[in-house]
């Protein structure tokens, strides 16, 4: 994954030495590449490393700057890998609609391969029959509307606990709460209950949060093999491979415990209905009408996809919502009066009210535009040669779609840097992959299957945060001093944690 190209000094020196050694080879390689794709705009690069040095630790930002100079369809040479960077709605449409099938695969990247059981999962797995079958399971059995509705009580319980936690934390900390931490606990607990069927105790939750944070880190970390496949052995030498394997062992131990527990519950007949994802998958394992038998490993990796895909992203979205609202008091006032008007007299905002909260929905959409939780979506790879506009794109070209840049495209968005939820009122633009100037969940065959699940959690949590409390910044923090930089990693939560003072109403 390209998201976080942080090079340590050892790695940098090694790269420079190898640069010298491979200088000629690098040159001839570039020539042959440029023969294959003669016309694509491409920033000039250095021998051997190509354009790698032009990518910062926040790649969506540096790619956006490069695209302003070189256009919305540019070819970067990242080490020995040709990478197509897509930065406009029309080019995104070419990739994810016109040529959706050609670009439906994912490259095999080191961290994903080790952590996701040899890419045996839905998110990082290559396009093919196995991916189609698991995607079908995901849509039909795990993330269907019926399943999402069945978790309504889980969401309500966890949101109520969150409100209690806020009050407790505030009274223990001179009125200040770490909103980021509260939201982390909420997203973790809702996902774990729905996926694994149980809440985690404090210690296990801490372990899971650490596993998720480190997975995002590793997926964004520079692996030499990803850009210089022949230098795979340097990842072993520098210890990255060992770190990844140890991290994988931790995930596996975490998941195996739940799987074994639920297998024995099923054997004893203690689990009668398919309530949680884990039980659904274990029951499918015994279903003779399935086109293939799900192995325990495949069950673990699908659980991992759901847990990892659902937590960090929803957390980033909720956290950015609160950040933007505190910085925009007029919007905060408007959205609070909408929520309070609709749920007036109730103890909490219940799910049946959410449909009426059109301004709050516009706030969430605006946050997804400015701060898409996965700013570069997930990388894709072409399955065959293809022509985009007048350019030939060879088979196995890696593709990065910059959703963060697309949400700032001046042709489609008036005053794109401004936070203006009103732009979505009375506008039927949605995030379901039909509007290519707005793709926070991706589009086409690989679009996120968890949209409904995520939105259900985010809307209920935000509505209740705004209904139950008024919010202000602690006295030592001002709006202007808030750092709006996003964190490095495959997802982009805000770098700094958000601390606020909740005032009960
Ligand atoms: C705000 C929350 C979320 C955001 C912004 C988000 C965003 C994304 C994006 C951008 C992709 C890649 C799409 C592409 O390549 O075109 C993706 C894929 C995926 N997401 Fe989400 N996601 C969210 C929540 C969830 C949830 C709750 C789940 C599951 C419980 C989930 C599971 C997945 C999976 C399994 C994939 C891989 C799909 C595939 O490659 O076929 N996501 N998501």
UniProtKB/TrEMBL annotation:
Alphabetized GO MF terms: metal ion binding; monooxygenase activity
Q: Which SUPFAM superfamilies match?
A: Cytochrome P450
Asked if the keyword Transferase belongs to this entry, the reply reads no
* Cited PROSITE patterns: CYTOCHROME_P450
Kindly state which keywords UniProt assigns to this record, in alphabetical order: Heme, Iron, Metal-binding, Monooxygenase, Oxidoreductase
Q: Which cofactor does it need?
A: heme
Q: Which residues bind heme?
A: 448
User: Has keyword DNA repair?
Assistant: no
| Pfam families recorded | p450
Identify its protein family. Belongs to the cytochrome P450 family.
Identification of the protein by name: Cytochrome P450 71A1
Q: List the source organism.
A: Dendrobium thyrsiflorum (Pinecone-like raceme dendrobium)
Taxonomy of the source species:
Eukaryota, Viridiplantae, Streptophyta, Embryophyta, Tracheophyta
């Amino acid at each position: 994954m390209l998201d976080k190209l942080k090079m340590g000094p050892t790695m940098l020196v090694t790269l420079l030495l190898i640069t010298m050694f491979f200088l000629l080879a690098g040159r001839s390689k570039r020539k042959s590449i440029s023969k294959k794709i003669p016309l694509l705009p491409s920033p000039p690069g250095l021998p051997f490393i190509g354009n790698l040095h032009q990518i910062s630790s926040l790649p969506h930002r540096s790619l956006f700057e490069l695209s302003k100079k070189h256009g919305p369809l540019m070819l970067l040479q990242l080490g020995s890998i040709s990478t197509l960077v897509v930065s406009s709605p029309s080019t995104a449409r070419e990739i994810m609609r016109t040529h959706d099938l050609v670009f439906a695969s994912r490259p095999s990247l080191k961290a994903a391969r080790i952590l996701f059981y040899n890419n045996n999962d839905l998110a990082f797995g290559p396009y093919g029959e196995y991916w189609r079958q698991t995607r079908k399971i995901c849509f039909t059995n795990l993330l269907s509307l019926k399943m999402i509705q069945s978790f309504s009580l889980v969401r309500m319980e966890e949101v109520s606990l969150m409100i209690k936690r806020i009050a407790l934390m505030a009274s223990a900390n001179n009125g200040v709460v770490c909103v980021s931490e509260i939201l982390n606990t909420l997203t973790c607990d809702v996902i774990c209950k729905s996926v694994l069927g149980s809440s985690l105790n404090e210690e296990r939750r801490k372990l899971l949060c650490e596993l998720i944070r480190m997975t995002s880190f590793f997926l964004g970390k520079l692996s030499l093999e990803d850009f210089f496949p022949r230098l795979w052995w340097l990842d072993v030498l520098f210890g990255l491979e060992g770190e990844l394997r140890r991290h994988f062992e931790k995930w596996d131990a975490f998941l195996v415990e739940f799987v074994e527990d639920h297998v024995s519950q099923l054997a004893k007949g203690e689990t009668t209905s398919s309530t949680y994802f884990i039980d659904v998958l274990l029951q499918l394992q015994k279903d003779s009408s399935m086109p293939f038998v799900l192995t325990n490993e495949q069950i673990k990796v699908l659980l991992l996809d759901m847990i990892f895909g659902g937590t960090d992203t929803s957390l980033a979205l909720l956290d950015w919502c609160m950040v933007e609202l505190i910085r925009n008091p007029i919007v905060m006032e408007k959205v609070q009066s909408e929520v309070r008007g609709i749920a007036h007299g109730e103890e909490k905002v219940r799910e049946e009210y959410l449909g009426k909260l059109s301004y709050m929905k516009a706030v969430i959409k605006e946050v997804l535009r400015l701060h898409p939780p996965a700013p570069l979506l997930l990388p894709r790879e072409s399955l065959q040669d293809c022509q985009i506009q007048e350019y030939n794109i060879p088979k196995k070209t890696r593709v990065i779609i910059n959703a963060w840049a697309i949400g700032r495209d001046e042709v489609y968005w008036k005053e794109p840097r401004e936070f203006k939820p009103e732009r979505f009122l009375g506008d039927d633009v949605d995030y379901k992959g039909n509007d290519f100037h707005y793709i926070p969940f991706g589009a086409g065959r690989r679009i996120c299957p968890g949209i409904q699940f995520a939105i259900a959690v985010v809307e209920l949590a935000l509505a209740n945060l705004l209904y139950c409390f008024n919010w202000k910044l602690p006295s030592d923090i001002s709006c202007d001093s808030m750092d709006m930089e996003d964190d490095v990693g495959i997802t982009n939560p805000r770098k700094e944690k958000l601390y606020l003072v909740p005032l009960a109403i």
